[in-house]
Amino acid sequence: MDSRRQDLTPQKRPYEGSDECSNKRTPDPGGVSRQSGSRRFYKLKVLLPNGTTVLMKIHDGSDFIAVKELADRVKIQAEKTSNHKKSVNWDADLCFIDDFDNVFKNSLKLTRLDINRVYNLRLHDGSKPATIYENMWDLTPDTELLMELPEEYTFVTALADLIDNSLQAVWANDETDKRLISVDISDEKISIIDTGPGMDSSSIEKWGKMGASLNRSYKIQAIGGKPPYLKPAFGMFGYGGFIASMHLGSHTKVSSKTKIGKKVYILCLERDALVTGSVFGSKGTWRTYGGLRDPTKDEIELSPGGSFTKVEIFEPKMRSTNIRWLKCKLKDIYFPYIQCDDLSKTGRTTRPIEFQVNGDDLAEIPGGEVAITNLASCNGPEFILQVHFKLNHDNATVTSSQGTRSSDEANARLRCVYLPVRDVKESIDSVLEALKEDGYDYTEEFGSFRHVSCRRLGRLLPDARWAWLPFMDFRQRKEDRSQVLKRSCMRVKCFIETDAGFNPTPSKTDFAHQNPFTNALRNLGSKQSLEKDSGVDVDIVKDGKSLNLAQLDKQYQLWLREMHERYDEEVDSGIDEPVLVVNPLNKKELHISSDVVRVHKAFRRKEKCWKSGQKIKILKGACAGFHNNNIYATLEYILLEGFQGDASSETIDISEKDGCILESVEGNPKFDLQKSVSIPINVIDSGKCVVVDDSEWNNQIKKQYSKLPSAIEILDSRQCHELGIESMLPDKPEIYANDASPGEIVAVIRPATYKSGTPSKHLDQKYMIKDNFEMSLAITYSSKKISQDEKNVYSGRVAPSSLRDFHGLYVFKPKCKSHPLFHKAGNYRFIFSIRDSSCKKCVVNVQVKASRDVHKWALAKKISHHNLTVGCPCQPISVSMFDKYDNQISFLILPEISIKINCPHAAMVLNNDFSPSISVDKLSLVIEDLVIESSNLDNIRPIYDATLMLFLSEKHLLDIPIKVLPGPIQHFIVQPEDIEKQLIPGLVINELKLELFDAYKNHVQENTKVEFSLDGFCWLDRSYSSKKVDACGYIDLGGLLRVTQGYGRKVSLSFCSNGETRIIKEWHIEKRQLRISSQMPESCFAGSQLENLEFVVVNSMGDVDVNFHDDDKMGQSHTLVIKSQFMDFGESVKYIFREGRCIVRAVSVPSEEGEFTFVVAHSIYPELQLTLKLHIVLPLETEPLNIMHNVNVLSLMESEAHIDYRSPQYHTPETMAMYPAMADIDSCLEFLKDLENEIVEISLRIGKLEAEIKQLEDEQKTIEVNLQNFGGIIDQLRVSTHGLPGKNTIIRRVESKPDCPAALVMQHLKEIGDQDRRGLMANIIGIVALLGTTPSFELSRLFAEYLGDKMLAVVCKYYKDIRLLESYKKNGKLNPRHALHMLARELGQSINGRYLVLCIDDIRACNVDKDVEGKLLFPDPTFPDGSTPTGFLGYAVNMINIDVDHLDTKTDAGYGLRETLFYRLFGETQVYETREDMTCAISCIKDGAISLDGGILRGNGAVSLGCLEPDIIFPVAPARNQLLSDNDIASYRQLKLKLRVTTDELVKKRKAHESDLKRFRKRHNLYAKYFSKNISK
Fold first, then answer.
1. Which of 326, 707, 765, 830 is most deeply packed, by most CB within 10 A?
2. pLDDT (0 to 100) of residue 307
3. Is 946 in a helix, a strand, or coil?
4. pTM for the model
């Protein structure tokens, strides 16, 4: 027994902390507040058998206290306060029992107790113990806390506070323990029970003490962690128990038991007693009843662990609470604790807590906003952000509620889900409808939907329901490309989960206002940074990567577009062709937001056809506006906008003309709903819209007709007088302005039995309906009888009233301040109508005429001025007479008027032969044929203001402002006058001005546009072809024109303005003549040459034109060319003019006897040419000298080199005849000696070249032998492998194609010699199909199918190389006898149509990094979440292997075929394994994609369908690295390069050898002929 007495140990709930803040003021049970560190006591609360409570304080001086001593102290204290009838047997064998039923009979060990902590002991005197104890619990709060009570507290809020306590309790259980919260609600009692650790005596007292939260110290532990932050440290204010229970009912009983406790502690709270009766004593303490009992059987079964807490609230203050709604609401508040996907490592849904309400498991009940929203969302990826907030103390301004402490950091997770359009309906609308059915009182619609919901520590904050976060809202974006975003952003729901770093309001329904973390979260994504103002640093992370605001905006847009493209289901079920209506009227009534809708007359819905004109019945409750009765209507139109539709129908009580109207106005369709009603398409889906037959429809019409009013009638003046009212409406249909007097208008509604054809003379009540209709009056005004310009001047509505015992009178008193009635002439329409009735409108027309009293004269139309052009009849000028109300008065006769012109600064002559007339409508006097003449308009330039004065019988009537403008261009003056001096072919005219005048010598008006036509000139810029006149009347053409005609030709400049008369000015370019100034012999020896021929260009005076000078800087190209049909001088050889002279150093003459004619001409201007003739004779015969040359004779080609021996003109027949001494043997021998020396020199050079050619040929053979070592491997890259087509196979296929340019190119390259290939055709690379290979047949076929005809495109290096394939005539037409077309003709083929040529040096290369294999390093495509699409194999441009023969084919900039040719063909085309993989990755595809199973996307929305088996594909060859190592490939490429250099050098040496051999033979033949004709004689 003694051992049991020593087990007095305080117990508490496992999650409760005992280390309360040491410096925090805590209420003493005796009412005295003490600070920690003051006097120390052991505190014992003794429960006496008579139901009273005594609090004992024992100083900590001793370790034990005897039971007898303690009982005596208790007795003394009890006798001071007790007044109960039942007494305690103090003489009995007393003992004390603790909370765990430990019995203490001898002593208590005090050292086992905590200082200043209260422990419960029950005094046992042998009698039956009490069950209820007075003043057992001290609930005295801190007085400061009474100022912090929540301002708004609702039933749900209070209930949630109590459930929070239970949630915190069960969360502390082990995973093996039962976690249950059960709520039972009835009209008599609310019960909340949990299977948490339970509460001991101290804990249960804190539960009932306001402000005594047990969880404040745990807030720091709930900051951070893993979302959704399920750490229910909700307690911050200490209101959860006391305030919540008192709010819910009149009195509360709390029962709790711990696992190790034997008894159930009871705390009783009574609201009235605590508020009014139990505040007693000078210390002002709050005490209440308590008790102890044993657990019941049901409680033991409910909690297998032996601990629980139960809160029972009696006489609850409920007002017909919807239990179904309450279950859904609680499910929303605690949804992550009920079911959660984040706690399981496998992603499996777990149930952390078992929640029950009235026996129903909340996880199993349908409904709730979160569950409904999740079901309505798409299955696509969510947009998830992790946001960390950290307080920057340098800038922070922290505001927090009393009793709370702000932390330095906070965390939030944002999870955005997409709610797409499904089954022609917005998912958000479906969610809202479902919530309203569950009892939610949301007033939101699709446009006002709250897109953000917030939780703190997994608990919903109901009032933290925001419309948007800044980064989510695209509604105000102005970009065109953001229209999809504006629509898609409306379909996003964002769930925000926060940790304990965010502070809530005391009621825990919202975040604390003005808190820096709250402000930072609400402004997340704002373009204006709030970090400086709020003092909070924000770090946004997505998929492990930090984002700035621009990146956040970009990734959110990408996600929105992906969700829209993948999950929004567009609907167009119309059968007929729709009418597109832009900006329809009645958008609100039509429930549409789009600017474009489709209007159908028939559509199909769920295999049923609905057509315009069908009679339908809309059942009661089908949709909004149809709650009370079934509605009969006629289906008129079906309207469909982007994703959902509406049907417009005309109800049975609306006339056909009041139904909706679809009409074309100025070619644009317009739709007006009028009185028809719009019903959503989903009414048809719900089955609450049915078609009715004719009999039912006709019966309904009869019933309706008998109840509806028939017509509206206006009481006349006599009937109004009977009522004592003066009628405003005149009895006549036409009146003059202001003839009607002010008054009232009275209307009545006639029943169907009333016959309007026989109006009664007196009022009769039986023909006036007394029902309480609302009548509207609309007064419109139109200046004409037609209503096109009709405008509303008054609108009003009145209810029926009574006068003189007549009921159902609708009295209107229209007052129109802005438009007084009957003042303006025109038609007034009075339209009377009844709202929501089929009663026909009553329309009264009153025609108001202008008064006959003329008040003023004025222009018929208000314009600032009239424009009059001198010499031209003016446009008609209309003037009118007006009365005092500005009404136009009709002209009955033509008045005699006179006109004068007032312009002080310019004399003007007025032609008085004008013709006034009256307009057709007789409202205007029209003045026509008025002509003004003046030559002084420059004096009033550029304003041209004047006044036209109108007189009637010398009476000044009106001043009309006019502008007198110059006439069209009639002549001009060219400046400078000696413009011919600038007319030099090819030169720009630097100085040229045109001064323009009209017929009266006035300068033309400024900004007059003049169109020019040129002959012999050209514009430096095409935009100069039209010019505007400047402020002075000039057009400056200096520096804009270039002379294009030649010398002696005519040039002209013509222009016109506004399509009027064309004016032409002509000039002549001064003539020039080409002459030869040097002496020209009449004859010359064959094979010789003419030297130092000088040509000059002279002007018309015969003088040399020293300005005739070749100068590129001045744009002058003056060169001379020589042409002859006997010899090819080469048109590319040009001789330059210097100061009018050109010297030709040598002209070769033919080697045959006869007449030699050649033409010397200017290279640009053919008119400058000169034809020269010369007689060619053979030299005298001589015998050859005994000179021997051992020369190899080879096949020679024509050489362009000329013979260059000394003074050949000296040895002409003329000179030898005139000077016989010169024809002696000595001079001939000297000439022959020179020839002999040259022959010897050429012979030596030929020998040297032959040695060099021999050496190069040996080197070439050595390289070729080395290359043969690679031959077998290279052949494997060219020939077929395992039946797959190799390069040779593809070459044969290409060559076999008839009339194909690619085949002709391949054949030509194959046939031409190596010399030509290295020379003329070196830059023709080949065709696309033979420049690359693929490792597999599938890739080859797919790439060929993707490229199509581009596989046969010819590839060359430069754009200029196209001339090798095609040439054109001077007229621009194709030359069929040149280049590739000539080869086709020789082979009997033809080239029809066009073919593609790709020039790699003109292709913009892809400038990205490359790997060691030369492949382009593109980044892999990624989804918005950063993942790479499944099945992505690579980029097509990298899966092509460059042909081994073209590895070194480069552009001048060093780019190879991959980054030029193949990037031009494929771009960033991607390759996937399957079509499904490619379709899933469509949002990542830029330029196109290919799948190995045959799918082809071409980018920008294009898809290739069908199947094709192309015969021209890329050769299939294994990868080079499979056959050759990297070193082998490098060696092969070096050998190929060395062979190319050697071959080029060999070609060059052979050409030089052939040229020298040709020269040797010509010199040798000349030597032999000359010797035989001269020396031998």
1. 830
2. 92
3. strand
4. 0.41
